[in-house]
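Appendix B, record 7
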Amino acid sequence: MTPTLVGRWQTRILILATMGVLITGLFTALYPSDPPPPFFPILAYVALLGLGWDALYHALQQRRWDHDWPAVFQLLAGLWEGLFILMLLTTVGLPGIGNTMPLGGFLWHYSLVWLGYFITAQSLMRILFPRWRFRGGQWWGRF
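Structure tokens (predicted):
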């Protein structure tokens, strides 16, 4: 499948709004801290900054001869995005979070959310929604 930019955005929002919220909710409930770290705001930043990253990935992808990514590129994108958010957290802080997020908590949370996102995008979406692949990843509307 070669996703359109809108398809990338819609898929990212859908998966993070379902799988990401589920994993973040479980992680928040099981993370032993008082008060619990701001995992939901981190998830929101992952989604928000990801829309910008998707625009960059889409532009780069259009330069490839087949206009598609191997799955390993998506994994590397997750690593890059996580490092970027971590850098922002530790250097300047993020509005609503500051720079008080424990490193271990962030790494575990982000890793589990991104792994859930990757598995869902690579397998579950293709199994449950086979037409999704033929619409360029779009869920609603034709832009």
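Remarks on this record: The radius of gyration is 16 Å. The chain has four helices and no strands.
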